[in-house]
Amino acid sequence: MKTKLFFSIFLLPFLASAQFSQNFDAATTTPTGWTVINGGDANGFIFAVGAPNSAYSAPNAAQINYSATAHNDYLVTPAITVTAGVNDRLTYYVKNQDPDYVENYAVKISITTPTAAAFTTTVTPSAGAPDTWTKFTINLTPYIGQTIYVGFHATSADKFRLLFDNIVNDSAASLAIDDVVKSTSKVVISPNPMKDVLNISNADKKILEVAFYSIDGKLIKTSIKNASTISVNDLKSGVYIIKVKTSDSEETFKVIKE
């Protein structure tokens, strides 16, 4: 039985109508579909270059900066119509700029509109952001079949800078490039990047099949069983995902064709 794979690239603003991936690098204006709500001091969320390490993926991040008056601001995702196995989770990276001035934030959900009063469900209570870029996952399966908005609520006063980056709406069934499973078996692939051939070996088991997929999940080619050297001259330059099957395991790797 064939399994269809879905892959998302953080550099693309939208993967499909039911998913999105946003790194805020395309412009310094609010991305299409997103909402910024400024309910506190004069400083709201902006999309810009900050100090060193102020973006998980350079150059920009969504950020809100210091004010003596308390923030009451939201960074709100586009509408998410939650579908099981398609877009039932949200992942994001967050960082506080200065460990001596820790910014607090909460994550909330609206099931109606992207307005401050509508964010009545708290997913993550207000707490300090980490001092290094950290990835968090929000489970959206309780909202399957509903259209929702996720709001990141900044609440601090007299601190420094709160940053968000690489916010992705997908599913655990989807496989983002930076989440490709790193093999813990004895499967070895080389060279990577590859040029003419790809060598694959396994000290424990025979390799039964090697399948090549494009980055959007389309099957490109399947190797001859037990082949240890596979010609890749027929592949165009780019990034591929390969699945290596043995008698008792299946490993996934990201490879680059020069």
Automatic annotation (TrEMBL):
Coiled coil: none annotated. GO terms for biological process: carbohydrate metabolic process. The keyword DNA repair does not apply. InterPro entries: Cleaved_adhesin (IPR011628), ConA-like_dom_sf (IPR013320), Secre_tail (IPR026444). The keyword Ribonucleoprotein does not apply. GO terms for molecular function: hydrolase activity, hydrolyzing O-glycosyl compounds. NCBIfam families: choice_anch_J, Por_Secre_tail. This is T9SS C-terminal target domain-containing protein.
